[in-house]
Amino acid sequence: MARSKKSSGPLLDGAAGLEGEARPVPGAMRRAKFGLGDIVRHRVYPFRGVIYDVDPVFANSEEWYQSIPVQVRPHKDQPFYHLLARNEDSTYQAYVSEQNLLADGEAGPVLHPLINDLFEGLENGRYRPRLRMKM
Length: 135
Prior knowledge:
Elements: E1 39-42, E2 48-55, H1 62-66, E3 80-86, E4 91-97, E5 101-103, H2 115-118, E6 119-123, E7 126-129
Antiparallel strand pairs: 1-2, 1-5, 2-3, 3-4, 6-7
């Protein structure tokens, strides 16, 4: 699946270095907690979304990374997720660190205009990825 390196939504990452949160060993690869089609919500900001791509470590631009305030900037050595996101006001694509995502308890649909292009349907609280993207 093609990756978009720029998020079209607001800079949505934060809460880095939360008390008691372990930092990964630099250079160590770890398994992603979430997968394609999982519905998640942001731990700080009020939005939920569907994962459509996963980077094992940070893979966006340095400019994007530096634009996040230092006090909430996440570490790069963790999975980052591309989301079809929705908040109360709009839909957008977001790029979020694993430390800032939680499993969504609603398990209901995420209303986003690109859902049907990338996923076949919602089953057991998770979207089934399409084998081929709709064009």
